[in-house]
Amino acid sequence: MANKLKTLWDNKSQILEGIKNAMIRDEFVEDVSKHRYDICNKCESKGDKCVVIGTSPCCNECGCSLAFKTRALSTECPLGKWKALMTEEEEDELDNLD
Question: Domain range spanning residue 20?
Answer without folding.
Answer: 2-93
